[in-house]
Each structure stands twice: as structure tokens, then as C-alpha cells.
Amino acid sequence: MASEEPQTVPPPRPPSATEASSRAWLAFLLVLVYLFIFLVGIRGLGQGFHGLGEDLLDRFFHATDNPFAGLVIGILGTTLVQSSSVTTSMVVAMVAAPEHPLPIQNAVPIIMGANIGTTVTNTIVSLGHMSRPDEFRRAFATATCHDFFNFLAVGTLLPLELATGFLTRLSGALAGFLGAPGGSKLPNPIKTATKVGLAPVQEGIAGLISAPRAAAVALIIVSAIIIFVALFLIVRTLRQLAAGRVQGYIARSLDASAWVGLLVGVLVTIMVQSSSITTSVLVPLAGAGIITLRQAFPITLGANIGTTVTALIASSAAASDTAHLGLQIALVHLLFNALGTLMVYPLPFTRNIPLRLAEWLAGVAVRSRKAALAYVVVLFYGLPALLVFVFR
């Protein structure tokens, strides 16, 4: 009996230009839907804080009167949710709450802490190279240069802000220039739409919980979940839409100047709405020896700036009377990252500080894997949790 010839399976047909265009438009429409849901969550968070009552908020705001407490709250909150966008969006909602808003001066250290906390993701990604020492050295240095940049920026700009309030004043002036200082009284279609979108959530909670303060807590929890899920869906959809392009944009930027690399970091992060994706792409590329630490650094700084767009979008859902406050704290985030970049990157001396510290720490991590794990666990989780307990 003759043996049957094995059947060959034809390779999958690549999508046509029309199909690819349809998928892109569908993804774009989904992003708009998820963005609306995200803004509904921001509005709900503000309304929830409004319903908590002045006495409870005063106790929380008193805790954040200590700038170091605010800093560690920002670090711990961001490391727990693995997203600075979630943390900064919540801060925007608290600052722009209709009544009893979080004071701007208390919110600034939280924003800076969120910047530090967001670096944990790519540092964790670098641990995947532990079994190959040379790869691990390159990957860990590329990941931790982001850490050291943020440490240097916070260590310089936070004391300066506490002494002079320059970020608060500059962001206030910019917010006044970009929008009416007292908040626009004109109809805003975004605010109107989010109010309508939030109404079923509020009605559902009111039907289940009668106590006003308990209902406010429930609204805060539900709104936080909405924000987290919406951002997750936005990032996933944009990542699928930009699949393959992110690496391409980054690779092409390496052949250009460092400032082009920084701009690519900004644009790619705006596209995927996550600095963690941009920086986490760099880590395996560096581990494989495809890019160097010095090539990855400007893209990392660009990603730091690009991630501030989320807070700016979140500020558009603030109530009219406090819209300028939401915009102001979002601008603080932008100014902090932009000024930090201008402070560190242009001069070779200052630019080399985070790079050399990252290379030194990578050498320590290669010699002791326990030290690398301790660095992540203690710095991003253990120490902030301890300090939150101390400052409470």
C-alpha cells in the first residue's frame, strides 16, 4: 500500500491593504471608546472624593502635608498598579475634585514619586536576563539608568520646589494662559458626555448603598477600577495597532542624533500611552547587544515626557470650577520631566552621572543576583511601604 504524501499547510495569507486599513480604523474607534470610559472614571473619582466629606479628606491631606510622605505614596501607589498613568490620573482627579480638592503643593511630591515608581516595570523585565551574565549586565544597566535619572531629578527639583514653589507657580501661569484661570463656564462636550456616562454608575451605586459616605467610597473604588481597565485596554489596543512599528521607530532613531531618539521616545509613548512599553522594549534590545546604554538613554527620557499626555487628557474631564487645577497639576508632571531632561542630558558631565551609576549597579547585580532582587523589592516596595507606615 502506497504511503500517503504529507499534506503541506499553506502559510497564512497576509492581510490585504483594505483589511489592514479596516483593522486600523476599528482599533482607532475602540481607543476612542476606551478613552471615553477612562474620562468617565476620572469624573467618577472626582465626584467620589466630593462625597467623602471635608473631615475625612482633611485627615488624608494632612498626611500629605509632609512632602516625603507624598513622595513615597506616589512611589508605592505606582509600583502596586504598575502604571504611573493610573497614579497621575487619580492625582489629577483629586486636585480637580469639585469641593475640598487636594492642594497642589501636596500633589507635586506624589507626581514625582509616580515618576520613580514607573521605572520598576522595565527593571523587572531586565531580571529575565539573569541566567546570562553579559546580557544581564547590559539589560540591567539600561533599565536602571531610568531609575537614576528620576532619583537625580527628584533630588534636585523637589528641594527647589519646596524652597521656591517654582513648579507650582510656573504651571499655574501656564494653566492660566492655556485656559481661563477660574475654569471655563462655557458648555464643554467632554464634561457633558462624561456626566451622562457616569450617571448609570452613580444610580446603580445609589440603589445598592444608601449611606452617602459609603456610596462615595464605592464610587471611588468603581471609578479606580474603570480607570485601570480603560487604560489597560487603551494600551493593549494601541500596542496591537503599533505592533512591529515600535521597534522599527526605535531602531531608525538609533541611526540619527540623540535628540531624534528623544523625540522618538516621546512620540512612541504617546502612541502606545505607556512609557513602560517603550522602555521595556529597550531592555531586551540592550541585553542582546543590539543597542547600547547611551543609545537607549535619550529614548528613555523621551518616554518620560511622552507619558505626561495621559494626565493632560485626564484634566479635560475635570469640573468647570476646578478645571484649571487639574490642568495645573498635569502641567507640573510635564514640566518636571521636561526640566529634568534639560537639567541632565545636554551636558556630558551630568548626562554621565545616571549612566555610570547604572553601569556600577549592573556590575553589582551580575556578581550577586540576590542584590539585584533586593534592589527591586526593597527600593520599590519594602522601603516605600515602611515609610508610608512611619509618616501616617
Poorly predicted runs are: 180-187
Helix content: over 70%
Shape: globular
Characterize the largest beta sheet: strand count, sense, and whether it forms a barrel.
none
Number of strands: 0
Give helix and strand order, one letter per element, not per position. HHHHHHHHHHHHHHHHHH
| CA radius of gyration | 23 Å
- The CA-CA distance between the termini, in Å, is 82 Å
Mean pLDDT: 79
Q: What is the strand content?
A: under 5%
Judged by helices, strands and strand pairing, the structural class is: mainly alpha
Please report the number of helical segments: 18
Describe this structure in words.
- The chain has helices spanning 17-52, 54-63, 67-81, 84-95, 104-117, 120-126, 133-164, 166-178, 189-208, 212-241, 245-254, 258-272, 275-287, 293-306, 309-314, 323-344, 348-367, 369-391.
- The protein is globular.
- Mean pLDDT is 79; it is low at 180-187.
- Helix content is 80%, strand content 0%.
- With 392 residues, it is mainly alpha-helical.
- The protein is built from 18 helices and no strands.
- Helix 3 packs across helix 5 and helix 4 (84-95) packs across helix 10 (212-241).
- The longest helix is centred in the first third of the chain and has 36 residues, at 17-52.
